Amino acid sequence: LYSQVEFADTSIIITEPYFNFSSIQESMTEILFEEYQFQSALRTNAGSLSAHHFFHTKPSELCCLVVDSGFSFTHIAPYCRSKKLKEGIRRINVGGKLLTNHLKEIISYRQLHVMDETYVINQVKEDVCYVSQHFYRDMDIAQLKGEDNTLLRDYVLPDFSTIKKGFCKPREEMVFSGKYKTSEQILRLANERFAVPEMLFHPSDIGIQEMGIPEAIVDSVQSLPEGFRERLEAELRSLVPAHLPVSVLLPANPVCYSWEGGKLLAHTPDYDEMVVTREDYEENGHLVCEDKFDI
Amino acid sequence: MVLEKKSSARVEAGQRRVLDEATRQRRLTRQLEALEKDNFQDDPLSSLPPPGPTARLPAFSESEEPEKKKRKTRGDHFKQRFRKNFTTLLEEENLSEKPEPNYLSAAAPPSSLPPRHFCCVCGFPSHYTCTTCGGRYCSSKCLITHRETRCLKWTL
Ligand SMILES: [Zn+2]
Ligand SMILES: [Zn+2]
């Protein structure tokens, strides 16, 4: 695909984490303009693109708060229209990478050594893990013996010859007492399924002394300047039924939501004003990027 | 950083060895560092030879141009720069001096909710604490497993 793109005629939108180090920002700009020779570039945060997407599809909304859970961390970021409210940004050092590593660790300790099987265990995570709605109730169910344990899953690991991709044994084929007669390698998972994603809500469960997502949202909103919180609350009140204090939107396709936002942004009339061109950069260096990009 | 004396790590308490607070903390730090490790891995399927008769790959001649003394490109320059690790970069930013919101100030503060405890063997809620290492366990069965596997064997 890359070979079909002429970088010198192309503008690129590239995302970085909130509060990316300035040394990394500078290197990023250098790579884009000097190595790849892009015609122009817009460096931004993925959450800003999501916010743009949201405001674009819901023009009556004035404020939103983006929860962006990624590979290395989870960010809470409030936006008021196109303005990012930096004092309200919170970072929780829990992301997909940590969840996969933790799942790898507990499976390796409890049943089968999989420390070198990141790819497979990441797939296990995506296939069987879920966020519990009743944590302690699920803990009770996961502890039950035999067929009463409705949360139990037997995951058949791929051997990359006959089984190309792992999968959960269908319920009717599960053997609850005794061993399987087949030679497949099987992981038996119960509390792992929801205890792993739980770290997003309670990082302290594994010793990370940080707030989980709901607490961090409250902390973020409380830190915002005078008036914002009241405004946000008032707007939410008028938008949702009284018994619902908050509205939470999960995009149909969250993985692509910010990318779609970037696509929308690239088609706005102001786009040319937002970017830094290579010409600009060659003339003025990093300063022009510092002025224009708000990372 | 103050170096702890390793010999003080295990304090005698009656007959049983007990890990001191500093060792417990080191153990936790090491566990959390392991969880932070990069873990990218390619699809194992993509590295397997394609099915069917093995296609013969063109053999690239290695003697055409000796690549030993390659011109130092900007790429090398970047590699040099990126050799710094995260902690170094963080220190260089000098963030604790800065008044405006930044990477350090954005860190989520500790939770104000009470801590929850889980058995370090089976992962279910636990009510007991191992007197030796401070790990949690839920039953005598799990305590036996814990003693046999990790309890004192995980020390640095
Ligand atoms: Zn247990
Ligand atoms: Zn112990």
Roughly what is the average pLDDT of chain B, rounded to an integer? 76
Strand content of chain B: 5-15%
For this entry, what is the oligomeric state of its chains?
Answer: heterodimer
CATH T-level topology of the largest domain in chain A? Nucleotidyltransferase, domain 5
- Helix and strand succession of chain A? EHEHEEEEHHHEEEHHHHHEHH
Architecture (CATH level 2) name of the largest domain in chain A: 2-Layer Sandwich
> What distance lies between the first and last C-alpha atoms of chain B, to the nearest angstrom?
17 Å
Summarize the largest interface: chains and residue counts: A-B, 58 and 47 residues
Strand content of chain A: 5-15%
At the fourth level of CATH, the homologous superfamily of the largest domain in chain A is ATPase, nucleotide binding domain
- Main CATH class of the largest domain in chain A: Alpha Beta
Query: Unreliable stretches of chain B, pLDDT < 50, 5 or more residues?
Result: 1-9, 53-59, 61-70
Keywords (chain A): Cytoplasm
Organism (chain A): Kryptolebias marmoratus (Mangrove killifish)
InterPro entries (chain A): Actin, ATPase_NBD
Family (chain A): Belongs to the actin family. ARP6 subfamily.
Question: Can you walk through the features of this model?
Answer:
The complex is a heterodimer of chains A (295) and B (156). Chain A has twelve helices and ten strands. Chain A is α+β, with helices and mostly antiparallel strands and 295 residues long. Chain A has two domains: 2-91 and 211-292, Nucleotidyltransferase, domain 5; 96-199, Alpha-Beta Complex (Actin, Chain A, domain 4). In chain A, the strands form three sheets. In chain A, strands 3, 4, 5 and 6 form a four-stranded antiparallel beta sheet that branches. Chain A has a three-stranded mixed beta sheet with strand order 1-2-10. In chain A, strands 8-7-9 form a three-stranded antiparallel beta sheet, covered by helices on one side. In chain A, helix 2 (46-57) packs across helix 9 and helix 3 (96-110) packs across helix 4 (118-128). The two termini of chain A are 28 Å apart. By secondary structure, chain B is α+β, with helices and mostly antiparallel strands. Chain B has a domain at 123-155. Chain B contains four helices and four strands, in the order E-E-H-H-H-E-E-H. Chain B has a two-stranded antiparallel ribbon with strand order 1-2. The longest helix of chain B is centred in the N-terminal third of the chain and has 16 residues, at 21-36. Chain B starts with 9 loop residues before the first strand and ends in a 7-residue tail after the last helix. The model of chain B is unreliable at 1-9, 53-59 and 61-70 (pLDDT under 50). Classes of the chains: A alpha+beta (295), B alpha+beta (156). At the A-B interface, helix 1, strand 6, helix 3, helix 4 and helix 5 of A face helix 1, helix 2 and helix 3 of B. One zinc ion binds next to loops of chain B. Chain A: It is found in: Cytoplasm. Chain A: Belongs to the actin family. ARP6 subfamily.
